[in-house]
Amino acid sequence: MPRVDKQLRRIGRTLEKHYRDVQDIEFTIERGKLWMLQTRDAKRTAQAAIRLAVELAKERLVSKAEAVRRVTPEHIDYFLHPQLDAAARSAAKEEGTLIAEGLNVSPGAAIGQIVFDADVAEHWAQKLKKKVILVRPEPRPDDVHGMLAAQGVLTSHGGRTSHAALVARQFGIPAVVGVVSLEVDVQRRQMRTSTGKVLKEGDWLSIDGGTGEVYAGELATVVPDVTDPYFVELLSWADGFRRLGVWANADYARDAERARKFGAAGIGLCRTEHMFFEAERLPVVQSMILARSTEQRAQHLAKLLPMQRGDFVGLFQAIDGLPVTIRLIDPPLHEFLPSHDELQKAIVELETRLRLSYGDPEALEAELRAKRKVLDSVEAMREQNPMLGLRGVRLGIHMPELVRMQMRAILEAACECVREGVKVKPKIMIPLVSTSAELQLQRALLEEEAQEVLKEQGMKVPYQFGTMIEVPRAALIADRIAEFAEFFSFGTNDLTQTTFAISRDDAETGFLSEYMQKGILTRNPFATIDQEGVGYLMELGVKLGRQTRKKLEVGICGEHGGDPASIAFCHRLGLDYVSCSPFRVPVARLAAAHAALGELKDQR
Amino acid sequence: MPRVDKQLRRIGRTLEKHYRDVQDIEFTIERGKLWMLQTRDAKRTAQAAIRLAVELAKERLVSKAEAVRRVTPEHIDYFLHPQLDAAARSAAKEEGTLIAEGLNVSPGAAIGQIVFDADVAEHWAQKLKKKVILVRPEPRPDDVHGMLAAQGVLTSHGGRTSHAALVARQFGIPAVVGVVSLEVDVQRRQMRTSTGKVLKEGDWLSIDGGTGEVYAGELATVVPDVTDPYFVELLSWADGFRRLGVWANADYARDAERARKFGAAGIGLCRTEHMFFEAERLPVVQSMILARSTEQRAQHLAKLLPMQRGDFVGLFQAIDGLPVTIRLIDPPLHEFLPSHDELQKAIVELETRLRLSYGDPEALEAELRAKRKVLDSVEAMREQNPMLGLRGVRLGIHMPELVRMQMRAILEAACECVREGVKVKPKIMIPLVSTSAELQLQRALLEEEAQEVLKEQGMKVPYQFGTMIEVPRAALIADRIAEFAEFFSFGTNDLTQTTFAISRDDAETGFLSEYMQKGILTRNPFATIDQEGVGYLMELGVKLGRQTRKKLEVGICGEHGGDPASIAFCHRLGLDYVSCSPFRVPVARLAAAHAALGELKDQR
Fold it and tell me: Domains in chain A, start-ordered, CATH in brackets?
C-alpha cells in the first residue's frame, strides 16, 4: 500500500507541524482506505524530550523559549540521578528477573538488599553500612525514618498521592508503589511474585522509580551524561532567559568544582563547621571548646587556623573568580562534644563496678574522674532546645576568639591565593542574627581582625559582610539589619522552623506527615516555601532591606533554593540568586528560566 | 518665735498648694528672720504616697486623674510583696543586728540562710528545700541559676544597673547590692561586717530590697494589707480611667478567688495540664500516654475525666459569672513521663550487675525488661527541640481522644454548675496554632464532642472557641485564623521565643544576660514586649484578625500582661484585656489607667 503509506507520512508531518511536537498517531486502514483515529503528543524519555525540544527549535518549528518551556524540571532531574544500565535492563528482562511493575512515583534507580521494616532498614543502613530497599505492604507515617535510611522504597499498595510517594519525592528517594502483584508478608520476612518466586529479607533488589519496574538481583546502573550536547545546549538557552542567578551550596573544594561544572555562578553557602567534624580535627575542636582558660583556648585555635586556611585556599582555587559566601560557625558547640548519653552510661557502669568492688579501684576511679570532667562540661552546655540556643552570631559574641580565627583563616587564604594569581571574592556571612546591634558588634570585631591580617600581609583584598535572614525578627527589622549588611541570604530552613514553630528533625518523621495526610498542609513547607507565612516574611525582608540599601544583594541558601516552585517565588520577589546543592544547579537554571518566561507570558 | 512659726506654716501651705504635693522644705532663721532655702516634693513610703494622692484629690488640690498618675506601679507593687515587720525592724535596730546598708535595687523582704555560691544556692533550695539568700562579692552571669533559686540576693559590689540588680528586678527577687561595708570571703565561706561581726554559710539573714537594709537573723515579715482603704479607693479611680480589661491567669480555684479579690474581671488563662502533674493523677496520666491500644487509653481517660471535671467545677464556682479561658493541653507528652536520664542510669546499672553476675539474674532480668519498656516509650517521644515539637494543637490532632475528654470535662462541669445556679462562661482556647486548617479541624472535633455532651445533659450552655497567637505564622495569617476563632489571646512568651529564635529556659541564665550587659538588648524581651519585632507581629495580628471579624476579642496572657510598659503597648494596640498573675492584677489596673491617661494627655 505505497499510496496509503505516503498519505500517512504526509498527514503525520502536517500534524507534527500543527502541534509542534512529535505525535503518537492512531490510525486504521479499512479496504485500502486510511482512517485517522487519534493523535496526541508522544511520550518520551527525558533524553528524547530534551533532544526533541532542541531539534524542533533548530528547525524553527518552535521558538527557543518554547523549547525551554517544553522541558520539565523532572527531565533535567533525570540527568542527575543514577539510572539502570540499558544493557543490564534488557538482559534482566530476557532472564525473566523483571518480577513486577508498579507506579513510578519518584525517579531514579535504587539497588539494595530487601528489608521489611523501618527499624531494620535504619539499623542495616546506619550501623551495618548496607544498602537497603525498604519493602512494605503500605508504609505508615512512622516508617519515615526507614525510608530516609533506604536507597529506595517499594510498596505493594498505595497510589501516587500516598504517604510513601509523597515522602519519597520530597526526599529524592527512588520509589515504586502500588505493586499489587507482589504479596508482601512482613511476619515471614518474604515476598512472593505472581509467578510464585519468593524473595527473602537480605536478597538483592533493583527498582526503577522512573519506570516503575522491579527487578530481582543487583542490576548495573549508569549516571546519565551531563555533558550530553542537547542537555548542555538547552540549559544554555535557559540561561539566556532567566533573571535569577544560580549559585551552589558547597563546603569543600570538590563540591565547588562540581557546582562550577553544573553551571553555578558562585558559592552561596559554605558551612565552615563541617570542616571541624573531620577525624583529625575533632579532638582539637573538642580541646578548644573544653579549654579552661583563654590562653589554653588560644593554643588550640592556633592549631585549627592552618587547617581552616587550607580549606579556604582549596575553595578559592576551585571557584577562581566567582564569589564565595562563607558562613561563620553556626551550630551549638555541644554538637562537637562526645554524646551525653554515652558518657552517662559509661559513668554509671564504672560507678557500679566500683561499688561492687569489681576491678582495680584506682584505675576505675581515675577513669571515672576523667569521664565525669567531660560530662560536667557537656552538661554545662546542654540545652533544652539547641535549635533556639547558643549558636550562630550568639556564639561569635560569646566566644569572639573563635570567629576571629575564622576571619583570619579566610583572609590569610585569600592573600595566599591572590599572590598565586587566583581571583578571590570572599563574602563573610553572619548567621542567626535577630537584632541589628549584634550584627554591628560582630561585624566591628571581625573588621578589626580583617584589617590586622591585611596589614600583616601588606595587601588589599576586597571582602563583604552580610547576614542570613533566618529568624522572623530579622525579616521584621530588615531595614535596620541592612545598615550593617552588604548582602542578605534567606536561610529558609531555619526561617520555616521558627515561623511555624516546628523542629524539622522531630516533625518531619512525625506529625508533619500526619498533617499532610490529613490535608492540613498540602505541601511540605521544608520542600516548597510556604508563601503565605514564610514568604510574607521574605517579601517584607526584601522590601525593608532595599529601603535602607537600594542595591542590597539578596539570595536564598536554604534547601528551597533547588525547588522549582520556590525558585518561581524567589523570582517574583526579585531576589538576585538562588543557591542550592550542586546536583540541583541544572534544575534551578531551568526553573529560573521558566519563572522568567512565565512572567513574559503574563505580561503579553 | 510664734510669728516666724506662723509665717513658716503659711508659706508651707502656699508651697504645697502651688506644687500640689507634700513638700520637703529647707529654711533657716537668722536673727529672727525666716529665710526659705529650698523646697521639693517630699519622699514617702508607698503607703504614704497612696494615702497622700487620695487625700489631695479629696481636698480637690489635684484631680482624680492626677492622683492616679502620681502613684507608680512600684507603689502598688509594694502592697503585693512581703515586707519586714515594723516592730521586728525596730527591735532589730535596737539590738544592733542591722549590720549594713546598701542599694535598694529590687523591692520586698527576703529571709533565708546565707550561701556563697550559686550552685550551693540551687542545691540547698531545690534539693534540701531550704530558704537561702545568695551572697556574692559581685555576681557573674553564670550565677543566675543561683539567684533564681534564692529568696533574695546580696552583693558587696555593683550598682543599680549591675547585672545582679537587673536580673533581680526582672524576676521580682528582693535584692540589695553595693553593700561595700561587708567583706565577703567566698573561699572561707563567711562575711565580715564593718564592726567585725562574722556571718558564716548557713547563718540566717534578712534583707529589705525596698530600703537596702541588711539584718543578721530571721526577722518577722508582714504582707501589706490589700484592703487598705486608700489603696482600694485609688485603684477604683484607676478603674474609671482605663480602657483595658484586667484578667488573671489562674489554674486552680484558689488562684481564681485571689484574682477576683484583686479585681480581675475574668480568667485569661487556665493551664489544664498543671492538674495532670498532681501526685494521685500522674500515674493515670502516664498509663494513658503509654497505652498500647485505643481501648486501653480510653480506660485511663475515663479515670481522668471526673478529676478534670472537678477542677473545672471549682474554677467556675470561684469565678461565678466571669469568663474563664481554658487552654487545652499544651506541653509535649514526654514531660509527664519519667526522666530519660534516670531510666538510662537504672538500666545501665542493672545491665552491669547482670553482666558481673551480681544478684538474682531472674529478678534483674525482669526489672530490666520493665525499665526498658518504659525507656523505649520515652525515647520514641523524645524530641530534639520539644519547644517546637508535638505539643499544643498538634497533640490535639494527634491524640483527639485526649482533648475530647477535656472538652467533655469542661461542659459537664459547666452543666453541673448551671444546675447549681452558678453562671458559667467557658472560653475554650486552642494553643500553638500555625495554620487555619488545623484550627478548623480541631474545632470541628471539639464542637462534635460539645454537642454530644449538651445533648446528653439536655441543656444549653454558651461557650466560645478561640486560639492563642504565639507562633509568628499565626500572626501573619491572622485574617484566616480569625475565620475559626471567636477570640485571640497573644501568648507572648512563646511568641517572643519563636520571633527571636531564643529558648528562654536556656538563654535567660546564659547569653541573654550577656546580651543585656553588652547593651545588645536594652531590656529583657521576656519581661517587656519587644515592640520592634514581637510588637510588629502583634499589631499585624490584631489588624488582620479584626479585618475578618470586626468584634474579635483580643487579649494577652503571656507574662508581659503584668508589665507596665507592655500594658501601655497593649493599650495602644487596642487590645480588650491583659491577663496576668493574680498578684500583678492591681499593678495592671493602675498601669492600664496610666496608659489611658497618657493618651488623654497626648490628645490635649
Answer: 2-72 (no CATH), 83-222 (3.50.30.10), 263-332+392-466 (3.20.20.60), 340-381 (no CATH), 470-604 (3.20.20.60)
